Amino acid sequence: MRLTRLVLRDLRNLAEVELHPGPGLNLLVGPNGAGKTSILEGLHLLAYGRSFRGRVRDGLVRTGQDAVNVFAEWELEGGRGEHRAGLRHAGNHWEARIDGTPVAHLGELCAAFMVVTFEPGSHALVSGGGEPRRRFVDWGLFHVEQDFLPVWRRYSRALKQRNALLKSGAGAGQIAAWDRELATAGEELTRRRALYLDRLQERLTPVAGALAPLLGRMSLEFDPGWRRSDLSLADALAVAGDRDRMLGHTTVGPHRADWKLVLSEKERGEALSRGQAKLAALSCLFAQAADCADERGDWPVIALDDLASELDAAHRQRVLDYLDATPAQVFITGTDEPETVRSTATAVVFHVEQGRVSRRE
Ligand SMILES: Nc1ncnc2c1ncn2[C@@H]1O[C@H](COP(=O)(O)OP(=O)(O)O)[C@@H](O)[C@H]1O
Ligand SMILES: [Mg+2]
């Protein structure tokens, strides 16, 4: 998909900006504090219903204003349609429309408007806790499998019920009544996550080779959240029953799933430098975008905040070359324009200064 128009109102220091991005690489260049990251935050907000820099009510809305507004128009690959969406978010309430129709759940925006974002917190994909990695896998599944969301919801609902019973000190029999539902939905969720990671592995190998050949082969290792190789989820829940009742929550299952990236040129457990972690996380993100493109016939928009930081010139160039070779629309922020971009025919440069944006012709 390709964004053709983006309007942001009252987002941090941006009173009102309007961009008409190019189909390929778009660079947002300007000094610190100009509003570059805020522009990507606007894109991210429309795609995810939240910011990557904390809650909407914690400063996303421009000081003195009631709400932030984001409006976008985009077209799908191969003339498969044009769409528009708008979101007004006031922190504790929001309203949104897609093609003029009111939206009931923010997930509808997420389904329509696909953006993958790399921001400073994205390092967590390789170095943080399991939560961002589960979210990463589920984002991919949500976008490529239409019937994934009901499975995910079914599992989440059953987990919530079982946890509520555990917390209230319910007896073993009452708890076990939920195990069946949890196990059925959980096995299905896990089956899909495992297949997804297998597929992602195929995409990751060429991306990693292009971005960070010195890190060697990158392998994704799935941890389903219980000892799946010797136990069904139903059995694992039964085994954990007493402990779960003592602790007051469910200790095994897909809500504890995780995956990790193993690099052939690194010892297990050896810490990566910030730059290496960034390359590894970027590789995962691009593999996911490529998978989305293959499965749906449409690339998500790729937004990279401060690409240059932590990367040396050669690796920066590798990333740009990789992106240039994909049909994806890309937004990159930075304080300087990369030297080589001048020669890229499709690159569009926007200057951002004190909350204002101008396109360099
Ligand atoms: N709620 C707000 N209202 C007004 N200005 C804000 C608000 N929140 C942050 N800012 C300011 O917005 C500016 C833009 O920040 P940012 O987008 O991070 O800049 P950049 O990425 O270009 O360095 C900063 O100067 C920041 O102080
Ligand atoms: Mg910034």
Keywords, separated by commas or semicolons:
about 350 residues, alpha/beta, Rossmann fold, Glutathione S-transferase Yfyf (Class Pi), Chain A, domain 2, six-stranded antiparallel sheet, 9 helices, globular, binds adenosine-5'-diphosphate, binds magnesium ion, ATP binding
Would you identify the regions where 5 or more consecutive residues have pLDDT less than 50? Answer: none
Mean pLDDT level: 94
Number of helical elements = 9
Radius of gyration: 22 Å
Biggest pleated sheet: 6 strands, antiparallel
Please state the overall shape, judged from the principal axes of the Cα atoms.
globular
Supply the CATH architecture of the largest domain.
Answer: 3-Layer(aba) Sandwich
Helix and strand composition category = alpha/beta
CATH superfamily of the largest domain: P-loop containing nucleotide triphosphate hydrolases
Helix fraction bin: 40-55%
Largest beta sheet: strand ordering: 2-1-4-5-6-7
Here the CATH topology of the largest domain equals: Rossmann fold
Q: Kindly report how far apart the N and C termini lie.
A: 23 Å
**Which percent range describes the beta-strand content?**
15-25%
| Series of secondary-structure elements, N-terminal to C-terminal | EEEHEEEEHEHHHHEHEHEHEEE
Which compounds are bound in this model? Answer: adenosine-5'-diphosphate, magnesium ion
CATH class of the largest domain: Alpha Beta
Function: The RecF protein is involved in DNA metabolism; it is required for DNA replication and normal SOS inducibility. RecF binds preferentially to single-stranded, linear DNA. It also seems to bind ATP.
Subcellular location: Cytoplasm
GO cellular component, one term: cytoplasm
Family: Belongs to the RecF family.
